[in-house]
Amino acid sequence: MNRIGVLTSGGDAPGMNAAVRAIVRKAIHYGIEIYGVHRGFMGLINSDFVKLDISSVGDIIHRGGTTLLTARCDEFKTEEGQRKALKNLEAFGIEGIIVIGGDGSLRGANALSKLGIPTIGIPATIDNDIAFTDNCIGFDTAANTVVDALNKVRDTATSHERTFIIEVMGRRAGHLALYTGLASGAETILVPEIPFDLNAVCDKIEKGYIRGKLHSIIVVAEGAANSMEVGKVIQEKTGLETRVIILGHLQRGGNPSAYDRILASRFGGKAVDLIIQNTKDKMLGLINGELVITDIEKVLSATKPLDMELYQLSDVLSF
Ligand code: F6P
C-alpha cells in the first residue's frame, strides 16, 4: 500500500488530534503517503483531501477538537453517496482509510470496506458506548471535565442547601453519567439502561436532608429523562429548592488528558500497522490494557453493557 487516508467523523472527541498525529507519523515512518480528509465522510464525497507531512501534525497532540474538522453526513448513508466517495478515493489513489469516530463513523467504515476499500476504525466518542473496547478516545477527558464541573456545583449546592440536577451527555447510553456520578459522589444517577422511580429518588433526597445533608446532586444521563422535568418533579414533591444544569457541549472540548493522548497514540500507530497489511473492516479496542482487533460488523451488532458493578457500588455509597 502506497497511499492511505485518515478522517475524523461525528462528534469531536478530545484526543482525535493525537490519533491523527500518530497515524501520520507512523505512515511516514513506513514511507507511505498519507492524506487527511476534511469534514469526515462529507470530505470523501467532495474530494476534500490534503496531503499531510510530519510538520502538519506538529503542535496538535495537546489540542481538543479535530484539526481535520468533522461533520455528520446524511449523503454518505446513501448508496449514491458511498459510490461517489469510492470514485474519489480511486481517482486519488487512496488505497485504505482509517476512520476515527463513534458508531456512525464505524458504520461508514463498514460501508466503505464492503465496496472494497480496506478500513480500520478507531473508537472516539465521549459517550464511550462502543462495544469491544473498555475506553473510547475522549471519554476520560470528558469525564474529568464533568467531575470538575460537579466539584464547582457542589460548592454552591452546599452553600445554598439546594438540590442540583446535572444533565450529562451520552446520547442513548449512561456510561458517562455513571462514571462521573460515582466519581463525584452524586446521591442519585439516572441512566437509560436502568428504570427508575422519581418517588424513590425524592424519598432518598428527603432522608438525606433529615439526616443533616446540606445538598443533593442528581446526575441525569441525557438519554434517561428530560432533566428539566426531573427538576420540576423533585421541587414539587420535596418542596426543596432545585436547580437544573445542562452541561452540554462543554463536555466535548478541552485539552485531552494524558490517558486519552496515550490511548489515541496507541490506536493510531497500530491502525497503520493493520492497514498496510490490507486488513479490512476491523476496529481497534483496548481491553484490560491490551490492544484488541474486532470485526466492525461484530462491534456494530453489539451493545456495550453498563458496568453494573459500578452502578451497584454507587448506589451503596450514596446512601
Ligand atoms: O456522540 C457525542 C455527543 O456529544 C452525544 O453525547 C450527544 O448526544 C451528541 O453528540 C450531540 O450531537 P451534536 O453535537 O450534533 O448536537
Automatic annotation (TrEMBL):
Alphabetized Pfam families for the sequence: PFK
Pathway recorded for this protein: Carbohydrate degradation; glycolysis; D-glyceraldehyde 3-phosphate and glycerone phosphate from D-glucose: step 3/4
UniProt activity-regulation remark: Allosterically activated by ADP and other diphosphonucleosides, and allosterically inhibited by phosphoenolpyruvate.
A biological-process GO annotation: fructose 1,6-bisphosphate metabolic process
SUPFAM superfamilies per UniProt: Phosphofructokinase
Residues annotated as binding ADP: 21-25, 154, 185-187, 211, 213-215
Boundaries of every Phosphofructokinase domain copy: 3-275
GO CC, any one term: 6-phosphofructokinase complex
Keywords: Allosteric enzyme, ATP-binding, Cytoplasm, Glycolysis, Kinase, Magnesium, Metal-binding, Nucleotide-binding, Transferase
Binding residue positions for Mg(2+): 103
UniProt-listed Enzyme Commission number(s): 2.7.1.11
InterPro entries linked: ATP_PFK, ATP_PFK_prok-type, PFKA_ATP_prok, Phosphofructokinase_CS, Phosphofructokinase_dom, PKF_sf
Binding site for ATP: 11, 72-73, 102-105
GO molecular function, one term: fructose-6-phosphate binding
Cofactor requirements of the protein: Mg(2+)
Residues that hold substrate according to the record: 125-127, 162, 169-171, 222, 243, 249-252
General function of this protein: Catalyzes the phosphorylation of D-fructose 6-phosphate to fructose 1,6-bisphosphate by ATP, the first committing step of glycolysis.
Protein name: ATP-dependent 6-phosphofructokinase
Species for this entry: Tepidanaerobacter acetatoxydans (strain DSM 21804 / JCM 16047 / Re1)
Organism lineage string: Bacteria, Bacillati, Bacillota, Clostridia, Thermosediminibacterales
